[in-house]
Amino acid sequence: MLNPLAEVFLPSYMKSLESDDKLDNDKVDNLDKGNAFINKCTHFCKKYKKDLLCDVNVDTLNIKINKVGLVAQDKLNDTEFKNTIEIHNQIVQSGYPNYLGCRIPVKSGINVDFFRENLIDYDDEIICEFLQFGAPIGYQGEMLNEGSSKVKNHKGATDFHDEILAYLLKEATYGAIIGPFDKNSFFCHFKISPLNSVYKKDSVERRVILDLSFPPGRSVNDFISKDVYLGERVQLSYPKVDDLVGIIKDKGGKCLVFKKDLKRAYRQIPIDPGDLHLVGFQWDNKLFADRVLPVGLRSSALICQRITTAVSFMFYKMGYMVINYLDDFGGADTVDKADEAYIALGALLDSCGLEESKQKGVAPTTRMEFLGITVDTVKLTLEVTSDRVLEISLLVQAWLRKKKASLRELQSILGKLHFVSTCVRPGRLFVSRLLNWLRSAFPSNVVGSGHKIYRKIPVEVQKDLLWWHRFLSSYNGISMMSLEDWSSPDEIFSSDACLEGFGAITSNQYFHAVFPSDITKDQLHINCLELLAIVVAVKIWGKHFWEKNSDLL
């Protein structure tokens, strides 16, 4: 999955430095002891005895670490920093995104020419423009003129000082950030957002986040639409495990599954240089700004998904099948072709200039975990670990004792129930009312304060949670894949209902009627009324349906 702390693609200007293993003691002696940030970088590197070679170009700082020892120099190298500021100001003053106006190419490891050559017939070819000139973050509205000194980093950052420092060193090494600098060098206001970090599963590192949703109501994300990007309506949808099952169905039982994972996907994708003033942050009284997609930006997932979907399209044109969920690529193929497909996917990512996380890749096998679900092509099962089942079961029990819940709490349980529903298809019915409650109880204008606002839990939601409690208490975490190959139907019928009446249609027959008073007086839920419409239709046309293969719409 997305790994925001892993290394980014090594810039070409650094590759020539890899062979330089000489220790320059003069540079160590000339270290500017007065620069607090440099001193802390030096302290961190010595403390953890980093066994690596890197060149940290943070515009006012060059730090070099090699296997022999630490080399740091205080020589100021402002040229690239000044050029970046000038480019930013030029783009902002043009009034257009870089790809429409100035069209100044950005630096990245991505092979833009390869994308252009292979996406000529692709319906989302504009992503090539984003890769060459930087992706606009989608900010709409006037810049908020608030004091930067008022912004404080969250405890998830301040309590993990060395981890954040390591993150900054890494990001600077690969040109993903600009800084440190002492004051705003842009001609417009420099928006500073707080840093945070969260625990990462199966890793000693922490996931560093730029909280662009803070402060609620006045944050950068508040001015980025969830539904519109660059004037076009968008609806971000991710592939599901069901889609991987579909590939398995196409390739046949006992086929081999495989996956590839991008290394730090967001941080390989450049943003429009004209947006740099919107993605600033502060550390040790120094200012920085992201050059790439921040983890914490509302539009990052949309942009990343569009780019990896384009990679899947190229892979499909090569004769293979794969699905992509942000930085994860999962595929399947027959035993005789799976190795070939796996190697081809790695070669494609390399040709695109996208660095993969080698240790997270899974070579062709009959059993693999993808998106948290274990897929077995021999047993044809989807499996959730017993620990996850117990975790979700305990959460549901806690909810059954609740009277009220916040938006964040609701989003948390919805995510976990949706996860189980990936394997348990009937469970999706018992998630829908929680989703409806989410939309009605927490409209978009209160989302920013969702952790503070509590709503009373409706009775129907409590009933659905009770169903989940009973189900999870006996669920062993294993479900069979749905591989049925349904033939085309001989007959299709459709039914519907409202609070007052119902009806149905099939072929050249139809009916409609008003509900009798003994039905309406009970004020049944609309789901019950729709079910009654189906029952009546089956009662009327049951014999006819029995003789044919019918589908209900």
Give a verbal description of the structure.
It comes from Mytilus edulis (Blue mussel). This is Reverse transcriptase domain-containing protein. This protein has 553 residues and is an alpha+beta fold. The protein folds into 3 domains: 1-383, Alpha-Beta Plaits (2-Layer Sandwich); 386-480, no CATH class; 491-552, no CATH class. The strands form 8 sheets. It has a 4-stranded antiparallel beta sheet with strand order 12-13-9-14. A 4-stranded antiparallel beta sheet has the order 15-16-17-20, with no helix packed on it. Strand 21 (491-497) and strand 22 (501-506) form a beta hairpin. The longest helix has 21 residues, at 526-546. The radius of gyration is 28 Å and the shape is globular. 35% of the residues are buried.
Features:
24 strands; four-stranded antiparallel β-sheet; disordered N terminus; Reverse transcriptase domain-containing protein; single chain; alpha+beta; 553 residues; DNA/RNA_pol_sf; 17 helices; Alpha-Beta Plaits; globular; 35% helix; Rev_trsase/Diguanyl_cyclase
